[in-house]
Amino acid sequence: MKEADKFVGHSNRVFCVRFNPTNQFSLVSGGWDNTLQIYDIRRKGPVANIYGPHICGDAIDYRHDGYTLLTGSYREEDAIELWDLRTLKKFRDIPWDGPKASEGLEQQLEEDQDRGGQAEEDKENQEPAQIEEIDEFEPVPAAFIYTA
Predict the structure, then answer these.
(1) DSSP string covering 59-76, please?
(2) In which order are the strands placed within the sheet that holds 60-62?
């Protein structure tokens, strides 16, 4: 690991920046240079970096613990990864079948068109859904579970 004043920052476009939810002075950024740059805004420049993720959009998020980071990379293999900011190492790849998930979508759209727009008419004739009123905000559980 380099000394803190030796990190130079990003060498290409930056697409996502996130503040740490548990530390108001810490943030992470990612972009096309395949690095995550970790900053303490009280210091000049990054304080650490991680090589790996190829961030091309809004694809960085912290877990509520403040040291687990989720990244989404623009690539077919190992696209979703979990990182531990205490060790600056990846500890899990999350399987994702993204490109294959939409294989049947084109055929389904063609079938809908062949039906002559019947699907749209069906939607228009449906009763409106009943919406339950909520008095208090209830936190939504995470979409996936972090386990080491």
Answers:
(1) -EEE-TTSSEEEEE-SSS
(2) 60-62, 68-72, 80-84, 89-94
User: 107 lies in a domain?
Assistant: no
Mean pLDDT, to the nearest integer, of 38-56? 91
pLDDT at res. 36: 92
Domain membership of residue 52 (yes or no) is: yes
Evaluate whether residue 73 is within a structural domain: yes
* 3-state DSSP assignment of residue 123: helix
Do 23 and 66 contact (CB within 8 A), yes or no?
yes
The domain of 94 spans: 4-99
Tokens 């205490």 belong to residue: 86
pLDDT band per the 50, 70, 90 thresholds, residue 139: very low
Domains of the chain: total: 1
